[in-house]
Model the fold of this input.
Amino acid sequence: MTGEPRSRGFTLIELLVVLAIIGMLLMIAVPRYYHTLQRSRETILRHDLSVMRDAIDKYYGDRGGYPQALPSLVDKRYLRAIPVDPITQSAATWVVVDSTDPDHPGMRDVHSGSDKTSINGTAFASW
Done:
């Protein structure tokens, strides 16, 4: 036992094997992560559209007419703020649908201003 002590540590091969395993795990996890992010953005969009449409309906029920624009819903306290479209990342890209009733002008619906499609293939602008 008079020889030199053997150094403790990892060999290059062991490090490469560990890095390969980590790389394979990342190849599995990263696409799922981005898919989950997209699904969460779509869920937020559905919720925001539902909240804004509910506010439009309440505005109509209370005031007997549609609001002229989204800021009217904030001014009259039907919404705290205009939500940010999670797909376009902007609160200014919402597309409003005007009423076709000449007795009740204003906006009767709202859609996303995105030209992209959802995971299931439908256009966000049609939601």
